[in-house]
């Protein structure tokens, strides 16, 4: 079976890239597969070895990294990371290497008979359904993480300590509306977290960086990913359409980063 790394090397045509372009490509691959934004020179040369390429002279490589506009110094000594802009560019180039078979969405009704919708509209809905599944799992995974960590660190009454006044009001209002419509089931498993918005989940995690550190390691990891996806999530939640393939790639890569970081 061909490894993801081999597929990546084929997609990037790594042997035809300039030596430093190969460095940047390897840094991107490392970030996506190791859930670690930084890498040291030894790690970079490790990818050259893995790809059967000649090693980069350590002194030349360090100087090239320091001079590049696409690279910044990492938090650790002699570690480097890619800038946000080059990461986005490389996501567009290489993200497809991580694609798996699409989720199969089936229905028990004939959607082709939907009034006022064309077959293209229906096909677009099917594609959005795949993205909904990913975001559904993503958001509920974050909820379960919060409940697990705070129950262990704050006790069974963690909600009373963690929730802001605004969150409590939101929960009570939405719960009250739900009780008026008894024919509808409760949201999720009844946890208050299912009555909050995506941004509220980020706020709670940010409030307890120490408690979440053993699971997430770096709170910025959550902030960058969840805050970035909030607008996309809202479009999906309100049955809108995302015409750009970049939006799909962004969600898919973010979800994979989340899974690797929390594994």
Largest sheet: 3 strands, antiparallel
- Counting DSSP H or I runs of 4 or more residues, the number of helices is 12
**Sheet with most strands: strand arrangement:** 1-3-2
Total beta strand runs: 3
Structural class: mainly alpha
Using only CA atoms, what is the Rg? 22 Å
- What pattern of helices and strands is seen along the backbone? HHEHHEEHHHHHHHH
Shape call: flat
Mean pLDDT: 87
Helix content: 55-70%
Uncertain residue segments: none
Terminal CA distance reads 24 Å
The portion of residues forming beta strands comes to under 5%
Helix-strand layout with pairing:
Blueprint: H1 4-12, H2 19-34, E1 39-40, H3 41-50, H4 58-67, E2 71-73, E3 79-82, H5 84-94, H6 119-154, H7 158-162, H8 165-180, H9 198-207, H10 209-216, H11 219-237, H12 245-262
Antiparallel strand pairs: 1-3, 2-3
Helix pairs in contact: 2-3, 6-9, 6-12, 9-11, 11-12
Describe the structure.
- The structure is a single chain.
- The protein is mainly alpha-helical.
- 64% of the residues lie in helices and 3% in strands.
- The chain has 12 helices and 3 strands, in the order ααβααββαααααααα.
- The chain has a 3-stranded antiparallel sheet with strand order 1-3-2.
- The protein is flat and about 70 Å long.
């Amino acid at each position: 079976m061909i490894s993801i790394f081999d597929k990546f090397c084929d997609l990037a045509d790594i042997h035809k890239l300039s030596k430093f372009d190969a460095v940047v490509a390897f840094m991107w691959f490392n970030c996506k597969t190791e859930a670690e934004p930084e890498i040291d020179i030894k790690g970079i040369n490790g990818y050259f070895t893995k790809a059967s390429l000649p090693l980069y002279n350590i002194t030349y490589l360090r100087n090239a990294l320091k001079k590049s506009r696409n690279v910044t110094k990492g938090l650790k000594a002699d570690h480097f990371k890619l800038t946000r802009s080059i990461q986005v560019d490389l996501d567009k180039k290489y993200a497809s290497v991580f694609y798996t078979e699409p989720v199969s969405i089936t229905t028990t009704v004939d959607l082709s008979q939907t009034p006022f919708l064309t077959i293209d509209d229906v096909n677009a809905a099917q594609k959005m359904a795949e993205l909904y599944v990913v975001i559904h799992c993503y958001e509920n995974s974050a909820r379960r993480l919060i409940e697990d960590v705070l129950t262990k660190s704050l006790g069974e009454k963690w909600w009373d300590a963690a929730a802001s006044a605004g969150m409590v009001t939101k929960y009570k209002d939405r719960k009250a509306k739900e009780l008026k419509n008894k024919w509808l089931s409760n949201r999720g498993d009844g946890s208050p977290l299912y009555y909050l918005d995506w941004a509220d989940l980020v706020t709670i995690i940010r409030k307890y960086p120490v408690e979440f550190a053993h699971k997430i390691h770096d709170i910025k990891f959550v902030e960058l990913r969840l805050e970035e996806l909030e607008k996309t999530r809202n479009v999906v939640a309100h049955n809108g359409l995302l015409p750009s393939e970049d939006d799909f790639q962004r969600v898919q890569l973010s979800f994979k980063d989340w899974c690797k970081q929390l594994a």
